What we know:
By secondary structure, the chain is mainly α. The protein has one domain (2-33, 40-196).
Amino acid sequence: MQMVDRSINLSARAALALALILALIPARAHGTEVNTPLPASTGESSLAVVTPSQLAPTEPIVEARLVVATEVLTSGKLTALNLSSVARTAFLVQKAKTRNGARYVGELLAKENYGWSGAQWKCLDKLWIKESQWTYTSHNKRTGAHGIPQAYPATKYESIGSDWRKNPVTQIMWGLKYIDVRYGTPCKALNTFYRIKMY
């Protein structure tokens, strides 16, 4: 009986490893371009504004809830849903490492987790274009603010995950939660930014 359990556990781990590897392979390996050309600038920022709903995802996204942590827990049972969630998370993290990909993921997570779409999405998009141009490596040398939502100090991200330096999804999830708790909506946060140049 123990031998059967061990072989099932090894098979599940092998399947998980394969799913993670496939999710992390850059889109270029699948024959598509990773960076799509940006349209003309709107004059608001040096980053051109593209409505993420107009961007076609390069791969389908499973509709399971996002698992924020990218590390798989070594304890507990591995289920098909867990495997699906981990693969989806790996895909979203890889996609969010580009500006347009981060905007796509930001729109998706804002809608899924907070119901923010339409005008609220547009406010969030404008706010984070102004803060970081949706670049997860963005760093303000003067203030020390870091990442897509420009957390200060950057260690605040650790309330979501310790992988914040390399994981734009961790930054996005923290930023969405911060706006929800402090302002209630992205449009209120943007109005504060317009008033005092920070939020």
